[in-house]
Automatic annotation (TrEMBL):
GO terms for molecular function: protein kinase binding. Keywords: Autophagy. Pfam families: ATG101. GO terms for biological process: autophagosome assembly. Belongs to the ATG101 family. The keyword ATP-binding does not apply. PANTHER family: AUTOPHAGY-RELATED PROTEIN 101. This is Autophagy-related protein 101. GO terms for cellular component: Atg1/ULK1 kinase complex; phagophore assembly site. It comes from Pristionchus mayeri. It comes from the Eukaryota. InterPro entries: ATG101.
């Protein structure tokens, strides 16, 4: 199985990073979450209810919809806040833009298998099946320029959300619905009110080299930024 990989590119002011990343990641989780499973038998289950909530961005002229789960929102906010702090540290004292990346990866767990038939396998491994990279060029603008950037950032993020929705709804691999015994191998059960597919947020690993055109696009973003 080949994991699906998708890259998005954004040019933002440092203050707009949390809004943009949170909007994109919650839009992904809206498509990659279910209500809690209530099993009647090992394979027969019912789903609870799943609400949604509209959130207004602070530094971008945009509202987005997320799963109405404060627990899930706190989990995402922790990673995004840590990423933002890393970017701020890297940008401090620099005159040129910061180039970085943050990703959301979905995976399932499976038992490790040994190629030696007489050796029993031990432990589990996480197998990615979908990864979404956000490649960023981050600038530190004067405060009085931020108002003029709010609309352009909103348009860029909106384009990503539309592309995301179009791509995510196409026929593709999804882990099969698990039995009661297998549910922790597919879904994250730590939340009391929602059940997303297992996911991780990967911070600050640099631009992706796995998708053709990404590096050239990032270079163009850097060039455009320097000549604004």
């Amino acid at each position: 199985m080949n994991a699906r990989l998708k890259d998005f590119n954004l040019n933002l002011d440092i203050r707009q990073v949390p809004d943009a990343i949170t909007c994109i990641f919650h839009s992904l989780l809206l498509h990659r979450s279910t209500a809690k499973f209530h099993y009647k038998t090992e394979t027969n289950f019912q789903l609870g209810s799943l609400g949604i909530k509209e959130v207004e961005c602070e530094f971008i002229d945009l509202c987005y919809v997320r799963v109405n789960s404060d627990e899930l929102a706190m989990r995402v906010d922790e990673d995004v806040r840590a990423f933002h702090q890393e970017v701020e540290r890297n940008a401090k004292g620099r005159n040129n833009p910061v180039q970085t990346q943050i990703s959301m990866e979905f995976f399932h767990r499976r038992r490790k298998s040994s190629w030696l038939p007489l050796i029993a396998s031990e432990g589990e491994e996480n197998v990615p099946w979908e990864r979404w990279n956000v490649n960023l060029v981050v600038n530190v603008r004067p405060h009085d320029e931020l108002s003029s950037l709010r609309e352009s950032a909103a348009e860029a993020v909106s384009d990503i959300i539309l592309s995301l929705c179009s791509c995510i709804n196409k026929p593709q691999y999804l882990p099969k619905m698990p039995t009661k015994k297998e549910i922790a191998d597919v879904f994250d059960e730590q939340f009391s009110d929602v059940q997303p597919y297992l996911f991780t947020i990967i911070r600050n690993k640099g631009p992706s080299s796995q998708t053709s055109g990404t590096l050239s696009t990032m270079k163009k973003l850097m060039k455009d930024t320097l000549f604004i």
